[in-house]
Amino acid sequence: MSVLNQDNGFSTSSQDRHNRTLQLHDEHKKIEYAASEMTEDTFRDLWKRGYPFVIRGADKLEEKIWRPNYFIEHYGDKDCTVIDVKENVEYKMDVKTFFKGFEDISSRFVNKAGICPCLKLKDWPPADDFAETFPEHYKDFYNSLPFKEYTTRSGVLNLAHRLPLEINRPDLGPKMYNAYGSEDNVGGKGTTNLHLDMTDAVNMMAYAPSVENRLEEERDKTAAAVWDLYHPADLPRVRRFLRKIAKEHGLSINHPIHDQCFYLDKELRSRLASEEGVTGWRVFQNPGDVVFVPAGCAHQVCNYTSCVKAAVDFVSPEGVARSYVV
């Protein structure tokens, strides 16, 4: 089985992989950058190592078109499917119903049990082309993307657009990810379960309410969202740990990460560190922050408050080998 090596991210044995992972973490601890200090050389250096990173204050989005009221006004009568992040139950509703509860809990949808579920509207639009459904947002998003030669559809270093026309190309987005606030403490279910993608991705937070305008129970967190990310070289140990957790709970799983059936709360993250020596990275995200996630980098997300995000996938020369392994 191929794993990470010195030059491109791939080596030959479990011990080599473990040693290389430690060396990588020691060599390059910094993964948070201001927009003014992130250079193309820094990007490429991080990317070839399989390192995620965040650029603070990188976007130049026109905030007003990403606000809940804008979606209510322009798309409110459109139907959508939302998911209860705690119970993994789907509900059908119109866009207006979802966004009215974005910052006003008294306006939230109530299910048959009399509960206001924590909802997310993911991969929006689910099937239609983003550029056709949201032309204003599409233009605004692409104008704001860093490293356009990698991240845009026509970027010369985005290998996705070089696929032969006869191949059924995957939908790389962009897509929007909109969700209410959740929690990541013991027993917390987060917003997006641990998973990984075969392509590289860039995620931009377009909108979140300011701390003073959040729900009262959300004001103890200054960040709008938190990401937990794990280097591709750590995946065997993460999988082993998750299989152990599944066995403890009597769960039958095929692939502990691809099945997207786990969110690692505070207790499980602590156990992963103590039992497998895997700590990963915690990255906090606010409006204006852009998170880059390499192919094969397992990650999960918890919104601390309601957030609007947009993301797009791409295929970089540095990430092709990792994409192949995934």
UniProtKB/TrEMBL annotation:
<dbReference type="GO" id="GO:0006357">
    <property type="term" value="P:regulation of transcription by RNA polymerase II"/>
</dbReference>
<dbReference type="GO" id="GO:0003712">
    <property type="term" value="F:transcription coregulator activity"/>
</dbReference>
<dbReference type="GO" id="GO:0032454">
    <property type="term" value="F:histone H3K9 demethylase activity"/>
</dbReference>
<dbReference type="GO" id="GO:0000785">
    <property type="term" value="C:chromatin"/>
</dbReference>
<dbReference type="InterPro" id="IPR045109">
    <property type="entry name" value="LSDs-like"/>
</dbReference>
<feature type="compositionally biased region" description="Polar residues">
    <location>
        <begin position="1"/>
        <end position="14"/>
    </location>
</feature>
<dbReference type="GO" id="GO:0031490">
    <property type="term" value="F:chromatin DNA binding"/>
</dbReference>
<dbReference type="Pfam" id="PF02373">
    <property type="entry name" value="JmjC"/>
</dbReference>
<keyword id="KW-0539">Nucleus</keyword>
<feature type="region of interest" description="Disordered">
    <location>
        <begin position="1"/>
        <end position="21"/>
    </location>
</feature>
<dbReference type="InterPro" id="IPR003347">
    <property type="entry name" value="JmjC_dom"/>
</dbReference>
<protein>
    <submittedName>
        <fullName>Uncharacterized protein</fullName>
    </submittedName>
</protein>
<keyword id="KW-0479">Metal-binding</keyword>
<dbReference type="GO" id="GO:0046872">
    <property type="term" value="F:metal ion binding"/>
</dbReference>
<dbReference type="GO" id="GO:0000118">
    <property type="term" value="C:histone deacetylase complex"/>
</dbReference>
